[in-house]
Amino acid sequence: MQSECTGQYSLVVQGGGQKGAFAAGVLDTFIAANYDPFSLYIGTSAGALNVSSFVTKQPGLGLDFIINYTTKNRFFDFTRLLDKQQAAMDLDWAFQFVHSGEFPLDLKKGAQNLGAHKQALACITHVEEMKDYYFPIFSEHWYDVLRATCAIPMLYHQEIEMDGANWVDGGVTATIPVQEAYRRGACNIVAITTEAMIVETPKSHLALPTEPLEKLKQDLTRGIEPYIHRFSSASNNNKAKQISEHFLARVSQLQEHPHFPKLDSMPKNWLPDTDKLTEMLAQQSRKINFKAHAPRAVEMLFHHYMNHSTVSDFMNKPPQGVSLWEIAPHKPLSCSGLMSHKDDILADYESGVLAGKEFLSKVRG
């Protein structure tokens, strides 16, 4: 239920790993223009880091973290997972620089800028409930909160323990938390996204027809099958087959979901590279209880997709009285979530700067 509309302005920032360079460019432009009408700030994953630097008014901090730390092999190395059965992502190493690096986040200044009447929140996912929760960024638990919102399942080595529960990446359950901003009373929402969610003619979300569903299942099978054969030992082969069966069964189940969109309205990037996903799951299943973990990881994938669908609905048809502005790139970003070249990161940052200036020219006249 939405609380009483206060008329406050909310800033919502999507994550996306290194794609966050775009939002960093937008927000640095806002800082330079002294534009900050917001009293509620919500970020998911990399979006929470960008929110943090915006609240502290430290331009360049978000870009610095992405380009100087997330591009290091120490931060992310896929071969660690495949060859050495280790975590591919080292968030602990990276986040020590948020506090004590050459360009540290000014936590004290952030708390001062918020004062008593503003909130800056990071979205994180409760693993057991598979539900999004929102924690203050500028608190004594800032380190765990920021790690949790960025803890991508299967890539980071563990779920974050906090408040007696386990937490992972907020993007699993709230890719763009505009609905939470609305629930908290914000009727004026500015959302920074990595690709445009608002379309000129929103499509109705109906059940997926049988024929496109079967095509989707066939496409997924083609992506999974090579790895079923690659892990040819009896135990690994059985586990990979279980992954395939579980994954495809969930696609069939979703056909009955009342909000499952038509195939042509699916977000382009809702599925990660299927080959890599399957190989990661197979590797993880060697180390841990497959039945307890791998299906849950697949469930996280589908929760992520379903949330993306409801967010699209909300943004294209916001509730009466809600004004929603989206700042999105005009063309696909050069970056991927991880393993992007520095030149691509800088290009997306500059794209964000231009988008920020375009937005300001419209709202300021």
From TrEMBL:
A Pfam family per the record: DUF6363
GO MF terms, alphabetically ordered: hydrolase activity
Motif (GXSXG): 43-47
Gene3D superfamilies: Cytosolic phospholipase A2 catalytic domain
Residues spanned by motif DGA/G: 169-171
Motif mapping: GXGXXG: 15-20
Active site: residue positions: 45, 169
InterPro entries: Acyl_Trfase/lysoPLipase, DUF6363, NTE, PNPLA_dom, YjjU-like
Domain PNPLA positions: 11-182
Gene Ontology BP annotations: lipid catabolic process
Keyword line: Hydrolase, Lipid degradation, Lipid metabolism
Protein name stated in the entry: PNPLA domain-containing protein
Species this chain originates from: Vibrio ezurae NBRC 102218
Higher taxonomy: Bacteria, Pseudomonadati, Pseudomonadota, Gammaproteobacteria, Vibrionales
